[in-house]
Amino acid sequence: MRLTRASDFALRILMLLSKTDGALSVDTISKRLALPKSHVMKIVSQLAAGGFVTTQRGRAGGVQINADDADITIGSVVRLIENEFAVVDCLGQSGPQCVFEPRCALKTVMSQATDAFLSVLDQHRIGDIAARTQRPKTKDAA
Hints:
The structure is a single chain. With 142 residues, the protein is mainly alpha-helical. It has six helices and two strands; from the N terminus they run αααββααα. The mean pLDDT is 86. The protein has a domain at 5-84 and 125-131: Winged helix-like DNA-binding domain superfamily/Winged helix DNA-binding domain (Arc Repressor Mutant, subunit A, Orthogonal Bundle), CATH 1.10.10. Helix 1 (5-18) crosses helix 3, helix 1 (5-18) packs across helix 4 (74-81) and helix 4 crosses helix 5.
């Protein structure tokens, strides 16, 4: 299974915020993580809608991790960001009808594999991962 870049970016944003006291601007997040500002804005919006971060506009505003980072699982973030977890077409929302339906044993196995993948992600929390990760290397110390 492969996650989209959006999930990768969302996890990195939360890790950075977890290691930061106070709020960071979208521009600062973008620079520190070497990510396009437009992507950061879109992902921060999704994270805010999911309740993982709070945002405040204005000069003293920025993005701040909303909950105790120890409560945010990687699995919950991935579920928020990813649209679909189909590892094979027949598990997808718009996948083709399988000639083996309604009794395809492969579909069940692939569904179990997806569940196992997400179960592992649910066992790991942003705060734990961030604590074991170095601060991002940047030219801009802002």
